Amino acid sequence: MKGSIRKSILISSIFVIATSAGAFEHLPVISGEDLIYGSDNRVEIDQYSDSSFINKSNSIALRVPKKRLVVDRDNENRILFPNVVLKNAMPQICEDERFTEQVSLGNCSGFLVSPTTLVTAGHCMVNAKECSDNKWVFGFKEGVTEFSPSQVYSCKSITAQKYVYSDKEVNDYAVIELDRPVKGFVKLNTRKFGRALLNTPLVVIGHPLGLPMKATDGAVVSRMNDLEREHPIKSFLLRDHYFTANLDSYGGNSGSPVFNARNGNVEGILVQGAEDFIYSPEKGCMQSRHLSDSHWNTYEKVMRINKVPGIR
């Protein structure tokens, strides 16, 4: 499906970038001059201007391969992780990119809808093996160098999951049960019926590129983008399960909650978007893809939360 670009990222200790298409799973290149829409609105979560969203971040987690988390042999209350910063994880990234000195640790985001129930994108939790091979870590923020056991949780089971992109259906969600209640859980209210209106202001909170948690605003619910306009009737029907927006997001943001900035309710799950990086022949490195801030350039796809079964 043209434009079906997952917002997850498979981060290894070192990225190997072989082509100008980028190392991430964002294979199609969307036409245009300039993944940032207009200005880059990403900020550290604790620096966000609205304290209510800082509080909500206590219920947002990063998916981390469990092999990257090691209990300190001298202190079982310390969980350590490799200190691999983004510029080393992705060696071809341009030096002037933001956050290159920060640790890149995981590969998807997720959020709690109950003390033990976490929601993420369907492509972030496909099967029981992914459930067992990954941990969910809360409170990974800039400056954090270790975790306590109360921040790290296991996936006990997948209770609902779907990952389908076709001409007739778009569904990308997973609901998982964690091994125990999350300490510090903050209830996130979700839309129960209806849909977000055109131009509703949005905030997304998650872990772009597996980095410490960021908040991003300055985006709105959009009308059909230029790719959807090629098949307007089909797109209109498919959009029953998603909407598009001009959110500044990257791989690793898959599964992030997308909030209504006015009332703080979760409108959906970030699941897709434009290609994150493009090769710059002038610089000889990979740089963030920039798109003009237009209603027609809105490729970040958000699965509507009230279309996810089992969410109350």
Could you list some keywords that capture this structure?
312 residues, mainly beta, Thrombin, subunit H, seven-stranded antiparallel β-sheet, six-stranded antiparallel barrel, 4 helices, 7% helix, globular
Report on the structure:
The protein has 312 residues and is mostly beta strands. It has a single domain, classed as Thrombin, subunit H, CATH 2.40.10. The chain has four helices and 19 strands. The chain has helices spanning 51-56, 86-89, 128-133, 232-238, and strands at 36-37, 42-44, 60-65, 70-72, 75-80, 108-112, 117-120, 134-138, 152-165, 170-178, 201-206, 214-220, 242-245, 257-260, 266-272, 277-280, 285-288, 290-291, 300-304. A seven-stranded antiparallel sheet has the order 2-12-11-14-15-19-13, with no helix packed on it. Strand 14 (257-260) and strand 15 form a beta hairpin. The radius of gyration is 18 Å and the shape is globular. Mean pLDDT is 83; it is low at 1-35.
Strand tally is: 19
Oligomer: single chain
Shape: globular
- Give me the side-by-side strand order of the main sheet: 2-12-11-14-15-19-13
What is the mean predicted local confidence, pLDDT? 83
Summed up, the helix count is 4
CATH C-level category? Mainly Beta
CATH topology description: Thrombin, subunit H
Tally the structural domains. 1
Main beta-sheet annotation: 7 strands, antiparallel
Low-confidence sequence ranges? 1-35
Strand content: 25-35%
C-alpha-based Rg, rounded: 18 Å
Helix-strand string = EEHEEEHEEHEEEEEHEEEEEEE
Helix content: under 10%
CATH-level-2 architecture = Beta Barrel
Distance between the termini: 31 Å
Q: Find the structural class using helix and strand composition.
A: mainly beta
